[in-house]
């Protein structure tokens, strides 16, 4: 009688995400999988080509699930490799990056040990995946002035300060943000606007803002599009406070709508940002692939309540922006 093959887990991890926290827990994760009867194959992630090549060579029948440890950028590369190779295995996400916006929406544990236990359970859910031209995204496609500010931020500063670094870097430049013209075309309508910033959300959080798209559902087959129109700086700062608390969708300076397909064009040279990484230049076609990815999650009765409302970075950013607002009024 032939011996049954032992089930395996292919684990990609980014050794630098979140100041390298996952690599200090790697042995513990391997031990937990081993105790559960699973053999771990760890792969140190380096680039999309590395991930895609490894995924193209596996036999899916040998694997219980796939796993990835890192931030949204690492998860983006991993998901692109999965979809480009037409794999349909469940995916376990270890949210060990700086912001972990996608994992936050799914209420995944930020404790590595608890996430390993979650990965070995049978509970999972299907989620949508966005697409920007020929590249997939899990959480957000963004473009505009604030994306440019984020790209200028020292990656080491981001790892050291976390999401605070985005806002510290942006403060001196708030008065210099340049609006750009865009044309948005959906099945229902075409609109032209002068915008400062826009996001097409699959999840609810982006760049550490937990409620930038407060009512988004990750498996409704729709992108939530939020466009921040050109406005005076004195109106931009109060709007920031509303974004922190998820009160911005009704603002007169914000356009909000849902769609499953959209084209974005501009006369300016604009580059989209995909899950925090540099994406395609405009024009871009955005769409949603409904229920394409199966993610290992906690059962609803095991999910801890969200307590991000009072996080220190929000209070610190609010104080700094209030100070900036007072300076602009003088």
User: How many strand segments?
Assistant: 15
Helix fraction? 25-40%
What structural class do the secondary elements suggest? alpha+beta
Distance between the termini: 84 Å
Low-pLDDT sequence parts: 307-314
What best-fitting shape do the alpha-carbon axes yield? elongated
Q: Which H/E pattern describes the elements? A: EHEHEHEHHEEEHHHEEEHEEEEEH
| Secondary structure tally, helices | 10
What percentage of amino acids are in beta strands?
25-35%
Mean pLDDT, rounded to whole units?
A: 81
Radius of gyration: 20 Å
Sheet with the most strands, sense and barrel status: 11 strands, antiparallel
List the helices and strands and how they pair.
Blueprint: E1 8-13, H1 26-35, E2 39-44, H2 48-56, E3 63-70, H3 72-84, E4 91-95, H4 101-105, H5 112-119, E5 124-132, E6 135-137, E7 140-144, H6 145-152, H7 155-161, H8 164-170, E8 180-185, E9 190-201, E10 223-229, H9 233-244, E11 254-259, E12 261-265, E13 271-274, E14 277-281, E15 284-296, H10 312-329
Parallel strand pairs: 1-2, 1-3, 3-4
Antiparallel strand pairs: 5-6, 5-15, 7-9, 7-13, 8-9, 8-12, 9-10, 10-11, 12-15, 13-14
Helix pairs in contact: 1-5, 2-3, 9-10
